[in-house]
Amino acid sequence: MIISQLGGIETISFPDHWCERTIQDSVLRQGVRAFHPQENPQVRVCSVMAQVELSRPAQDALQKILYEAFHTLTNAEVDSLSEILQAMSNPDAFSLESSATGYLCDKRALNVSGQWKGTMEQDLSFFVDLHGDGKWTQHIYYVGAPGDFEDYKTEANEILQSIVWTRAVSTK
Predict the structure, then answer these.
(1) Three-state secondary structure call for residue 88
(2) Phi/psi at 115 (nearest 5 deg)?
(3) pTM of the complete model beyond 0.85
(4) E strand residue ranges, the chain
(5) Can you give the three-state secondary structure of 41-87, one letter per residue?
(6) What is the mean pLDDT of residues 30-51?
(7) CA distance 105 to 165
(8) Labelling 90: which of 33, 84, 99, 139 has CA 20 to 30 A away?
(9) Is the model's pLDDT at 29 over the cut of 50?
(10) How many angstroms separate the CA atoms of 119 and 84, rounded?
């Protein structure tokens, strides 16, 4: 299954046994496009576009951190990205295992992984700067219960590596 025009993603490919559903996120108050194996809807690759332009301090922090040499994020950098990372920057909600800058299919990204304390789900997240100006982001993530997360991790990595980015992205 090939999905086109998913925010800043031109195309992304899923195995034939994966399907799509929309999840209404009560915190974000917006729909999250979620894709999962038909046999296990608890394992998901999801995409959510920012619905509001980032504040100027968040834009500055994102640009400074994302466009430096690739590196592991410091605690201060994680704190400065709280508007982008949202609950992932809250140690009461999320146990942060790693955070760094890198690439997701030739696009610079914040790479964040860890475990949600409430659900115990593992999360591998990528936050990309859609235009290169720090104003708009897209959050792409793979999430699932610890055992299921490992079972589908190879497929999820193949899905994430199949991403082809658009050159120009509309945020409207």
Answers:
(1) helix
(2) -135, 135
(3) yes
(4) 2-6, 9-13, 18-25, 30-37, 44-49, 94-104, 107-116, 122-129, 137-144, 164-165
(5) CCCEEEEEECCCCCCHHHHHHHHHHHCCCCCECCHHHHHHCHHHHHH
(6) 85
(7) 8
(8) 33
(9) no
(10) 21
